[in-house]
Design goal:
The chain is mainly β. It is about 15% helix and about 40% strand. Strand 2 and strand 3 form a beta hairpin. The chain is globular, with a radius of gyration of 14 Å.
Length: about 120
C-alpha cells in the first residue's frame, strides 16, 4: 500500500463506521471491499462489495469494528480518502472525499485521476 507509517491509508467517519458495521452484520461479511473500475462519464467508478474474507493483497483498514478492504490496483488512488455516509431526503449513501481526484462528473458517480488512462480495472 502507498502509505505513511503510522497513518491509515483511508479514514472512516463515525457515520460510515456505523453503516459499514450494520452491513457487515446483516450479511455476516468480513468487510466492505472498495475498488475502482473503468466507466462513467469521467472515466472511473468506485466499486463496493461485501466480502467473506480478505485477499492476501488487500489493504485492510479497521476502525471501531468497521472493516474496509482496498483492492490492490486501487490503493494508490484511494490514499488520503475520507469515507463518509450521508443520509438525505432523496438519497443516502457513501461519499468519498478523495484528494487524488482531478475531475468528477456532475452526478458524482464517476471520477478521474491523473493516471487513470493506464489503470487496469481494480
Amino acid at each position: 500500500m502507498f502509505s505513511i507509517p503510522g497513518q491509515a491509508p483511508v479514514t472512516i467517519t463515525p457515520a460510515a463506521e456505523r453503516q459499514i458495521s450494520r452491513l457487515m452484520a446483516g450479511k455476516d461479511a468480513y468487510g466492505l471491499k472498495i475498488g475502482l473500475k473503468k466507466g462513467g462519464c469521467a472515466g472511473m467508478e468506485y466499486t463496493m462489495d461485501l466480502v467473506p474474507a480478505a485477499d492476501a493483497t488487500d489493504e485492510v483498514v479497521e476502525q471501531n469494528g468497521a472493516r474496509i478492504l482496498i483492492a490492490p490496483t486501487a490503493q494508490m488512488f484511494l490514499f488520503g480518502t475520507q469515507i463518509d455516509y450521508e443520509t438525505g431526503l432523496l438519497e443516502s449513501g457513501f461519499k468519498f472525499r478523495n484528494p487524488n481526484v482531478t475531475d468528477a462528473c456532475g452526478c458524482g458517480e464517476s471520477v478521474s485521476f491523473k493516471l487513470d488512462r493506464d489503470t487496469p480495472d481494480a
